[in-house]
Specification:
This protein has 8 helices and 16 strands. It is of the alpha/beta class. α1 packs across α2, α5 packs parallel to α7 and α6 runs antiparallel to α7.
């Protein structure tokens, strides 16, 4: 997840959470977007549903959609809210479709991916109200379109929300310590270097959606994105402050911060 400013409720963060920290109109606030892919896969296994992935995206057939919706908008969301509230935070659990916060549409590759969606538009009024009240929105990546549920990649959802909320930064925390190229973690990228990194053969699996989400956030006006693993209390503050491990991607080119060793 991304804590600090929102506190960390347990020693190890869940592996799929994203945050859009510190909106200018609500300094210090955080919106948390979580996934829960490992738990979805585990429940699929218990129920005899074989998981499949294409370019890091889960293939969501009808059986998988039921599991994803139950786990993400149910178990994963409410467990996280409970832990945050136990840590003293006024967390509010939502799915992205609640209150019409996110409009989604079927993915361009829906014929292959199934009930997977992409964000069409964000209506941030509900989140702005919650942030103005000092609450912490905790959002599961389940959307809808024409009355049907859609599973949306949580990195993409977080990027869209970060842009709509004019976030200071997008932080993508998971078990991935950052972008690894040629065996080494890339500490800094600018927008131009990001385009080259996306073409690098080392960028595979779940890292590709993260880089695409980071690019979308930068294109939407978010100044920077961070890809990192949780490293204990202070992780979020350190990343937002420009330090810490992981990969920082900046919207503005800066010769001192660009990393070109992957070219």
């Amino acid at each position: 997840m991304r804590w600090n400013r929102t506190a960390k409720p347990r020693r190890r963060a869940p592996p799929c959470a994203r945050a859009a920290p510190r909106r200018p109109t609500h300094p210090g606030s955080v919106v948390i977007v979580h996934g829960g892919g490992a738990e979805v896969t585990a429940w699929c296994g218990r129920l005899g549903v074989a998981p499949r992935f294409v370019d890091g995206l889960r293939v969501t057939d009808p059986a998988t959609l039921e599991v994803a919706a139950a786990v993400l908008a149910g178990l994963a969301n409410k467990r996280l809210v409970a832990r945050l509230r136990a840590a003293g935070l006024d967390a509010v659990g939502l799915a992205a479709l609640d209150g019409g916060t996110v409009e989604a549409e079927p993915h361009a590759r829906a014929a292959m991916l199934g009930a997977v969606g992409t964000v069409r538009q964000v209506h941030p009024a509900l989140l702005e109200t919650l942030l103005g009240q000092g609450r912490v929105p905790v959002i599961a990546s389940i959307c809808d379109c024409d009355g049907a549920l859609l599973n949306v990649n949580a990195d993409d959802l977080a990027a869209a929300l970060a842009g709509a909320l004019h976030a200071r930064a997008l932080v993508l925390l998971s078990d991935a310590p950052g972008l690894r190229l040629g065996g080494s973690i890339v500490p800094r990228l600018d927008a131009d270097s990001l385009a080259a990194a996306l073409d690098h053969p080392d960028v595979q699996g779940g890292m590709r959606p993260k880089l695409i989400a980071a690019r979308a956030a930068l294109d939407a006006g978010v100044p920077r994105a961070h890809i990192a693993a949780w490293s204990g209390p202070g992780t979020l503050r350190t990343l937002i402050g420009g330090g810490g491990a992981g990969t920082t991607i900046l919207a503005a080119a800066d010769a001192l911060l660009s990393h070109r060793s992957h070219s």
